[in-house]
Design a protein that fits this description.
The protein is about 35% helix and about 35% strand. Strand 17 and strand 18 form a beta hairpin. The protein folds into four domains: about 90 residues, conserved putative lor/sdh protein from methanococcus maripaludis s2 fold (Beta Barrel); about 80 residues, Efflux pump adaptor protein, beta barrel domain (Elongation Factor Tu (Ef-tu), domain 3, Beta Barrel); about 55 residues, OB fold (Dihydrolipoamide Acetyltransferase, E2P) (Beta Barrel), CATH 2.40.50; about 120 residues, Helix Hairpins (Orthogonal Bundle). The strands form four sheets. Strands 1-22-18-17-21-2 form a six-stranded mixed β-sheet, with no helix packed on it. It has a six-stranded antiparallel β-barrel with strand order 4-11-14-13-12-15. Helix 2 runs antiparallel to helix 3. It contains four helices and 22 strands. It starts with a helix and ends with a strand. The chain is α+β, with helices and mostly antiparallel strands and about 400 residues long.
Length: about 400
């Protein structure tokens, strides 16, 4: 009895002190994914979807608004610089042009009439001045002869003064007439100059309006592929509205939309790559667009060499974009565990693989394939990397 009691006490003490009281869960080995921690080169990169685009795209915008009355080319057509694509009609613009044209003809006729009138007035004034100067010459002749007679006391002073007054009056009249004609000549020249300036301004306006009428025919600004034309005959187009685009097809680039989380880490010159036609092709980040829309921003990538054979506009490709230099690190395969643990702990299998125990870890950088392990794991250890959603908060998993 004493021996039995001692055995019972020993069993109870062992159970309390040495037995494993951690929470456990039995799991089926076939339903989990196990990855081996390894040491290797860590490449920090992201995988994005990029779309093939031409190196240069020219937007077709309507300079003038109007109704489409003619469509000469459809999307997908090769065009040469200057080819007509659309013809618009704008009745208000046409009517305004006709009114300005009529106005300039009226002004030209008015200028011609003014010049003719001024020429006639000049002849009349010259004739009047000629008569006045003839009278002045005759009066001076009388004045000179009568002055001699007066000096010889042949005629009276009263008679001499009459000739003198006539001569002085005609002399002053001649001076006034000369100044008046000079003023009228200057005024006439000013009127002509003003009319010529008005005609010049009206002609310039008319030329601008003619250019606006020419813009009603939309032509190709460069040679290339008319990739889209988004209007039909009868459509109404506003000034400045985009109606299509022309692609310069002497080369291609890739454009990718990337989550705004990476905007501070991407810059021109970063390397990228993609798989196409069974080969890896190198790319370089050419331009980062800073504008963020709906949580994403755009990046242009250019080919390190010639574009691969078979690349076409609009083709979508998965592109691997590097974010930093490669470095040696302890690596853990990515998996569903991270969404449950946040990378703070994992289940690590023991040596014989019969159970897995929860262990705290510290993770660093990540890429689509691996996490960088900073603390808690050693190369060669095996970790459950599949989802932990069905394990609850169990500390030990027993493998079945």
């Amino acid at each position: 009895m004493m021996g039995g009691g001692a055995l019972l006490v020993f069993v109870l003490l062992y159970s309390l002190v040495f037995a494993d009281h951690r929470s456990k869960l039995n799991v089926e080995r076939e339903k989990i994914t196990v990855s081996t921690v390894q040491k290797g080169i860590f490449d920090e990169y992201i995988v994005v979807t990029a779309v093939v685009q031409p190196l240069k795209t020219i937007r077709l915008d309507a300079v003038q608004g109007g109704y489409v009355v003619g469509k000469y080319l459809d999307g997908g057509t090769m065009v040469e610089k200057g080819d007509s694509i659309l013809r618009l009609e704008n009745q208000d613009l046409t009517l305004s042009y006709v009114n300005h044209e009529t106005e300039i003809y009226r002004l030209i006729n008015e200028l011609q009439s003014t010049r003719l009138q001024l020429r006639q007035n000049r002849y009349q004034l010259e004739s009047a001045l000629s008569d006045l100067q003839a009278q002045l010459k005759a009066a001076k002749d009388l004045y000179d002869r009568n002055k001699l007679l007066y000096d010889d006391q042949v005629i009276s002073e009263q008679e001499f003064l009459k000739y003198k007054i006539d001569y002085e009056r005609l002399k002053e009249q001649n001076r006034i007439e000369v100044e008046s004609q000079k003023y009228q000549e200057q005024n006439a020249e000013l009127q002509i100059k003003q009319l010529e300036g008005t005609i010049d301004r009206t002609q310039r306006n008319l030329e601008l309006m003619k250019a606006s009428l020419d813009n009603l025919i939309i032509r190709a600004p460069i040679s290339g592929l008319l990739s889209s034309i988004d209007v039909e005959v009868g459509s109404s187009i506003s000034a400045g509205e985009n109606i299509g685009q022309i692609d310069v097809i002497d080369g291609y680039k890739l454009r990718a939309q990337i989550d705004e989380h990476y905007i501070s880490r991407l810059f021109a010159g970063l390397k990228a790559s993609f798989e196409f036609g069974g080969k890896t092709h190198e790319l370089t980040v050419r331009k980062v667009y800073p504008e963020v829309l709906n949580g994403r921003f755009e990046v242009d990538l250019e080919f390190a060499g010639a574009a691969p054979e078979g690349i076409r506009r609009g083709l979508s490709l998965p592109v691997r974009v590097g974010l930093g230099k490669s470095a040696e690190a302890v690596l853990l395969s990515s998996g569903g565990f991270f969404s449950h643990t946040g990378g703070n702990w994992v289940y690590v299998l023991d040596g014989d693989g019969t159970r897995a125990v929860k262990r705290s870890i510290t993770l660093g950088r990540k890429n689509p394939e691996y996490f960088e392990v900073l603390e808690g794991l050693q190369p060669g250890e095996k970790v459950i990397t599949s989802s932990y959603d069905n394990f609850g908060d169990k500390e030990v998993l027993q493998m079945n």
